[in-house]
Design goal:
With about 300 residues, the protein is an alpha/beta fold. It is built from eleven helices and 14 strands. A five-stranded mixed sheet has the order 4-3-5-14-6. Helix 1 (about 5-15) packs across helix 4. It is elongated and about 80 Å long.
Length: about 300
């Protein structure tokens, strides 16, 4: 049957997108062409693959079986095409990345520049945000994050390196309010908290295996680390943040570390992927760039 793969591709996209118009937009075809391809496929197979109403398109039992059996074929064909193209002309195509705002501004420009020199065929779409992004739903190929283990177990993730965090405040603030000598003393201080929403907060600190939970109501909550560093430099209170955000302020004396023997839980720079069976070459290559750069930093 001539055009079988094209019809199978249209069928898979209609099933994925839940409609003919949406599938046509994704494939860059007109809805009439996609509708005709599905009709030809149903005629060839002698079964109805979709039920159609004015509101939705849904797979029939036969359609679900056909999708299950044809998806591996289409995936294998796409992988073969990609492998041949990459071997012939190198890495190419779009690479969609999301990363934290401050990390993206401070660390990623150099990595991006080096990556683009070696792989000019890759067009990078970098979105910087401190909010949690659903990479599968929002169409990202990968996410760089500074966190603990991800809450979404349907994704693939791995650690790149540890991200040290410390408590710090400005010398002027500490001269005015005093230097806390125990974690519990933090409750009597103005604490600036990194979070998405205002509310009570808890800092967990450990010394020689002895954990202490400090529950407090922040005087200020913000979801951007650079902003919190500036507020701390302006004598607004105590922060608990990654060292790389505060290093310049620490080196200049604008901030100083407090409670150096007490440590928060370890967090990492991680890379998170959708549930790939095999990492696309451009995703693997960019991950390698980030890993190599960060190994030089730590």
């Amino acid at each position: 049957m001539s055009g079988q793969f094209e019809r199978m591709t249209s069928f898979a996209n209609v099933a994925e997108q839940g409609g003919f118009a949406a599938a046509a937009r994704k494939l860059g075809l007109s809805p009439s062409i996609v509708t005709r391809q599905i009709a030809e496929l149903e005629t060839h197979l002698g079964v109805q693959l979709f039920t159609r109403t004015t509101r939705q398109v849904a797979l029939t039992d036969a359609g679900r079986l056909y999708l299950e059996r044809t998806q591996p074929i289409l995936s294998a064909l796409a992988e073969a095409n990609s492998a041949v193209v990459e071997r012939q002309i190198g890495l190419s195509g779009p690479l969609n990345i999301t990363a934290p705002l401050s990390f993206g501004m401070r660390v990623l420009p150099q990595i991006m520049s080096q990556f683009r020199i070696l792989h000019p065929g890759v067009t990078v779409n970098l979105q910087l945000t401190d909010r949690f992004v659903d990479i599968a739903q929002d169409g990202f190929d990968m996410a760089l994050r500074i966190s603990g283990p991800p809450p979404d177990q349907s994704t693939i993730w791995r650690k790149i390196c540890a991200v040290p965090r410390i408590l710090a405040a400005s010398p002027h603030y500490l001269a005015r309010r005093g230097i806390p000598t125990t974690p519990k003393a933090l409750r009597d201080h103005d604490c600036l908290h990194y979070a998405e929403r205002a509310g009570s907060a808890v800092w967990l600190l450990t010394h020689k295996g002895d954990p202490v939970q400090v529950q407090f109501k922040p005087c200020l909550t913000c979801n951007n680390g650079d902003t919190l560093v500036r507020l701390a430099c302006n004598d607004e209170g105590i922060v608990l943040l990654p060292t790389f955000l505060m290093q310049e302020a620490l080196d200049s004396g604008a901030l100083q570390q407090i409670l150096p023997d007490w440590h928060p839980p370890e967090i990492w720079l991680t890379v998170t992927y959708p549930n790939y069976e095999k990492l696309p070459a451009k995703v693997a290559a960019f991950t390698g760039f980030v890993e190599a750069e960060m190994m030089q930093e730590v």
